[in-house]
């Protein structure tokens, strides 16, 4: 048995007397609370003072006696919450419960890695049992107090992560993750039934889930994939539970993280990681967009459509300058253009369709650059000119401006190569602008006529730069033509 010294025996006796006095004072407080209010008020302070004194003395004896005192304190303050008719006093009893369990863990020499789980886990379980008892006896205020206390206490098992022990951390992770999902389900169930519980569990499930994320650094990759996947589900369900569609944006972000970790965990080709994840995400988001559109959920449907566009643009931009993925980037841009075109056609937004045409052109040029590397700037500039001309033919809005930009591509590309390389590019430049002059004259487009005349004249002057007499003759004819044109214009104005 345990042998105490004379001083310790005296301390034990004092502690026993003080604890008995504390319980007796509480009993007298209850007896006189209605009969003699003044006398009862004296006992309201005495039972607390007796208990605190006993608890302080037990520190001088042993941890066993400290646990005994805190255990008695649990019973004392639990009874006091009924005597005083103050449910919050049960929180004091709950704190003493946690302290008792922590001391017991120390007494039985429980391994350090299990202390947090043992202390806070068992305490939370006891508090949930108390919650059930209060529910059975229809003690709503006490039920809410104990539910809140249990929720807070259970979260504290996260301190198992500080031990570095893998199994303990994994156990805490699983408990917190399961309880995050459970809290969300309870939140949804009591959303329109009980405001206090609804608010309590509204705060609970994000906190529990955040706790699981804090533990991930000590766990294997598999659990990271699981945690972020569950995070996607939590955010999506929460967007309906909270009637806040914007929460799915966080869920979409979690899906990006989950796929990235999964790709790395499966040891897939890292070169294709960005585009591979981009295509998977785009497919999921776009498919979900049409499902929600069919269900009439326009807000979430639009969020998924924008998510599709963001991942396609982001993936293309990140991999844009990697030569080995030029074709894949081009295909990704074409996929982006198709989604833009479909949405533009559905909503009758022709500007979006036009944007899709330009994005498609850019994507096809990226593919052509890889397949036919001999193509030069002139080919791509004329390609853009043709596209702009076709768009101008289909849309009346800013038609002239589009045609001018298209001819700017033609003039700039052909002109630069004519100056740098000469040869056939000079002839191409002249033919193109003579054709522009003819078309402008046939369609009575003054801007095209003057553009064609100016460019053709410059081309001829450049051809004749080494033939002085021909150059001077051409300049003379050009000057005469300008004078005649001005005289004819002035005479028509006078008439």
Describe the structure using short key phrases:
19 helices; mainly alpha; 0% strand; single chain; 495 residues
Kindly describe this structure.
- With 495 residues, the protein is mostly helical.
- The chain has 19 helices and no strands.
- It has helices spanning 6-32, 37-58, 63-83, 89-107, 112-136, 140-155, 166-189, 195-215, 221-241, 248-265, 273-295, 298-318, 326-347, 350-371, 377-394, 399-421, 424-443, 446-463, 468-494.
- Helix 5 packs antiparallel against helix 6 (140-155) and helix 10 runs antiparallel to helix 11.
- The protein is elongated and about 120 Å long.
What is this entry, summarized?
Helix content is 82%, strand content 0%.
Number of helices: 19
- Residue windows where pLDDT falls under 50 for at least 5 positions: 466-476
Broad structural category: mainly alpha
Assign an overall shape.
elongated
Average of pLDDT: 85
Topology:
Blueprint: H1 6-32, H2 37-58, H3 63-83, H4 89-107, H5 112-136, H6 140-155, H7 166-189, H8 195-215, H9 221-241, H10 248-265, H11 273-295, H12 298-318, H13 326-347, H14 350-371, H15 377-394, H16 399-421, H17 424-443, H18 446-463, H19 468-494
